[in-house]
Amino acid sequence: MVKYEKHEFDDNKYQCPVCDYGHGEGNGKSRQAVSMHYKKQHEENVIIDKTPPIQDDKIENFDDTKPEWLDFDMSNEEDDSSTVSVSPLASTLLRGMVSDEEVPKSAKAMKEYYRQQGKMMRWIFSGFVDPIFAWWGRAVTSNEEFDVKRTASDWELFEDASSNWLEYHGMSIPVTPDMVMVGTIATFYVPVITSVHRQRDPTKMSFFKKWRTRRALKKALKNKKIEEAVE
Asked: How far is CA 6 from CA 1, 22, 32, 39, 197, in A?
């Protein structure tokens, strides 16, 4: 918008285009005077008017009522979905490993400590060593039903022998966070794998059988190529 305009009556004079400043015959002003008037009286007012009003923040009432879609019951979810649970032996050992207790000093506490060490040895052999031998036995014998089975009395004997051996040599199984984590994962999933293996579909070829078949085919093709080359 222009800050001044030519006067209606006075020559070489100017007046304000917004208000009556400089209007009327004989009241004309110079261009500089009208510009300064416009800047002081009108531009500052425009800037002030254009400044957005400060609005107070409205504090809305917060409703902490739980929505319906969050209102569901999980009490029976674990029981319905779980098919294999952690054995009491593994649970007890894992809790003892996490506690990270030092070797006790008294004779009675020492005996109990090594008794737990014997249980840990049993858990390691039953959860890791025996499955490895079972896998090896299936591969060698071509018998999918091959398994390493032991009675409860066998494991009790193993626990006693292990605890006595560790106590005699003054040794204990080192427990680290890595070992605890590996043991926890194995405790959760080894029983699941075992359960799935027992309930597998006999009509489907297992991984080991596929591997043996593929190996036999490669060997037969190799022998055939050798015979053809000799002929």
From this structure: 14, 10, 12, 17, 102
| pLDDT, greater one: 50 or 216 | 216
126 neighbors 186 (Cβ within 8 angstroms): no
86-127 pLDDT tens trace: 555 556 555 655 554 556 677 888 888 888 888 888 888 887
The number of angstroms, rounded, from the C-alpha of 192 to the middle of its chain's C-alpha atoms is 22
User: Looking only at Cα atoms, what is the longest distance across the chain?
Assistant: 131
| Of 176, 151, 166, 150, residue with least CA distance to 115 | 166
12 vs 10: CA distance, rounded Å: 7
SS3 15: strand
Report the predicted TM-score, pTM, of the whole model to 2 decimal places.
Answer: 0.39
Could you report the per-residue pLDDT of 19-32, keeping only the tens digit for each?
888 888 777 888 88
Contact 155, 130 (CB under 8 A): no
Alpha carbon of 197 to those of 57, 108, 185, 202, 204: distances in Å? 64, 43, 18, 10, 12
For 113, other C-beta atoms within 10 Å of its C-beta total: 19
- pLDDT digits over 138-153, tens only? 888 888 788 888 998 9
* Secondary structure percentages of the chain, helix, strand, coil, to 5: 60, 0, 40
Report pLDDT digits (tens) over 173-206: 776 777 777 777 777 777 777 777 777 777 777 7
Question: In whole angstroms, what is the distance from residue 78 CA to residue 83 CA?
Answer: 9
Separation between Cα atoms, residue 159 and residue 194, nearest integer Å? 23
